[in-house]
Amino acid sequence: MRVWYSPHYYANIGENHVFPMRKFALVRERLLREGTLHLEEIAESRPVALEDVLLVHTEDYITRLRAGTLTERELRRLGLPWSKALVRRSLLAAGGTLSAARWALAHGVGSNLAGGTHHAFADRGEGFCVLNDVAIAIRALQRERLIERAAVIDLDVHQGNGTATIFADDPRVFTFSIHGAKNYPLFKAHSTLDIALSDGVRDAEYLDTLQESLPQVFAHAPDIVFYLAGADPYRDDKLGRLALTIEGLRARDEIVLRECRQRKIPIVTVMAGGYAKELGDTVEIHCNTIRAVRAIFETMNAPVAQPTDRSVADSEHMPSER
Fold it and tell me: Could you say which protein family the record assigns here (predicted)?
């Protein structure tokens, strides 16, 4: 098992900001304390290479982002104050997702204790999302011919409008989103498959909908799945409007992970959003995703997908990759 993390996933955005920037460190600490993870299983994230970022994002946006010259309107859309630390954390989080994807191709599953920034478009950031880490990882793996087809299973409560738009004209990438119909963003993009739920949907309806929909995703025959395990469908989430329990969200994770394991499809988990009234609930939901990874990939006997020679070579050098 291997997960990616950096202490620099934290950037100071103000103590009263709705985005819980402390959750990344708290998830790591809880998983280590309880023994779900061991130190040697946590790899240090490295910043994603600029050439990989530019496979997705425009040069103009990235140049102004790095220089701190985004307009006031762009910063309002982003919803985060600019800082060098914010740029660094965004590059590190994208690097963590790409590293986890390389590991998954070789070993069946990889996880990033950040990522899932699905509101970032090619030319701008939105909704607390600076760079689209999953899109960057997919494009980098495609460029290196490690994969041809990919699927994004986005179970954050907010539609992944940036991801859907980036891949709108690419039939090789299947984008799937279950989200709140009346939640942000106001104007939805078009994913390959969108399921918009009414306010107040509970565990049973949500899980039935997920299980009924997944065969369409797997019919795409993806070489890898990126799973956005958002904590914000939780019933006590400040921005959620759905009514799932912590147990229901754990069951959701298990469904997705088990389906990929049984079908021998490598899967990458990323955290996406979570804004519970009690920060500890958000942390627990994210921890449950990693607990489910450990349980399912250690206890099931089916063989994992066989990696290509190149992906094996890459995975052997994971901690020191660029």
Answer: Belongs to the histone deacetylase family.
Q: How far apart are CA 155 and CA 141, in angstroms?
A: 22
248, 173 Cβ separation under 8 angstroms: no
Please, are residues 117 and 131 in contact by the beta-carbon 8 Å criterion?
Answer: yes
DSSP class of 255? H
pLDDT digits (tens, 9 = 90+) for 31-78: 999 999 999 999 999 999 999 999 999 999 999 999 999 999 999 999
Phi, psi of 234 (to 5 degrees): -60, 145
Enclosing domain of residue 57: 3-320
DSSP character for 31? H
Q: Where are the alpha helices (DSSP H) in 219-303?
A: 246-263, 279-299
Q: Give the CATH number for residue 250.
A: 3.40.800.20
Phi, psi of 18 (to 5 degrees): -70, -25
Enclosing H/E stretch for 225: strand 224-228
Beta bridge partners of 180: 197
Decide: pTM greater than 0.85.
yes
Reference 280, options 4, 14, 18, 22; nearest CA is 22
Q: How many domains does the chain have?
A: 1
CB 155 within 8 Å of CB 228: yes
